[in-house]
């Protein structure tokens, strides 16, 4: 049995609605990624689940797209001089340089944190009498792989939540007060 056309209307059963949302969200994000790759476009999507949980997708990332969108709404005056434009460009370059420096500092801090965590893990494994990872057998490695994959999924979900929240905060900051 092939695909059949369904009538577009709200799904009444809440559990079915949640499943439909999850599948459609995945498909939507996949299509958005394909569009970004094939057409070399920047794209951002923010959706809320029926339970109110935010999900986002962005290429290259949601924050940069939202920031670009917000800055486009503020059109510069048409009478700007070349001096003002070059000043704006140098300010942008300075901002980018500062952001790069901040990111490099964060990267170094995370690398140091990773090294510290590796030492802690090795110490805990040694304290428990567990062998190092390179000395584990196939069954133990499979269990470890499974737990790491679960952790990776949880981290990816958390990252998506944080991206959506930060996007919403960016949008909220720029909303005019009523």
Summarize the structure.
The chain is 68% helix and 7% strand. The chain has 178 residues and is mainly alpha-helical. The chain has a two-stranded antiparallel ribbon with strand order 1-2.
Query: What is the CATH class of the largest domain?
Result: Alpha Beta
Query: Would you count the extended β strands for me?
Result: 2
Counted up, domains total: 2
* CATH hierarchy: architecture of the largest domain: 3-Layer(aba) Sandwich
Proportion of residues in β-strands:
5-15%
- State the strand order across the main sheet: 1-2
- Look at the structure and name the CATH superfamily of the largest domain: Transcription factor, MADS-box
Q: What is the general shape? A: flat
Q: Which class of secondary structure composition applies to the elements?
A: mainly alpha
| Poorly predicted regions | 76-80
Q: How much helical structure, as a percent, in the residues?
A: 55-70%
The major pleated sheet works out as:
2 strands, antiparallel
What is the end-to-end distance? 54 Å
Number of helices: 4
Mean pLDDT: 82
Radius of gyration: 23 Å
Question: SSE order, as H and E?
Answer: HEEHHH
């Amino acid at each position: 049995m092939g695909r059949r056309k369904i009538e577009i209307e709200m799904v009444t059963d809440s559990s079915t609605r949640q499943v439909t949302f999850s599948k459609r969200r995945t498909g939507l994000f996949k299509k958005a990624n394909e569009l970004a790759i094939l057409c070399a476009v920047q794209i951002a999507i923010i959706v809320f689940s029926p339970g109110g949980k935010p999900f986002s997708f962005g290429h290259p990332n949601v924050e940069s797209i939202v920031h670009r969108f917000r800055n486009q709404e503020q059109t510069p005056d048409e009478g700007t001089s070349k001096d003002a434009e070059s000043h704006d460009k140098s300010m942008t370059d300075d901002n980018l340089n500062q952001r790069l420096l901040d990111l490099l500092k964060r990267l170094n801090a995370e690398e140091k944190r990773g090294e510290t965590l590796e030492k802690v893990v090795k110490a805990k494994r040694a304290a428990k009498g567990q062998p190092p990872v390179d000395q584990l057998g196939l069954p133990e490695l499979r269990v470890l792989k499974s737990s790491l994959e679960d952790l990776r999924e949880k981290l990816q979900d958390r990252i998506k939540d944080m991206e959506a929240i930060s996007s919403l905060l960016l949008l909220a900051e720029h909303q005019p007060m009523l």
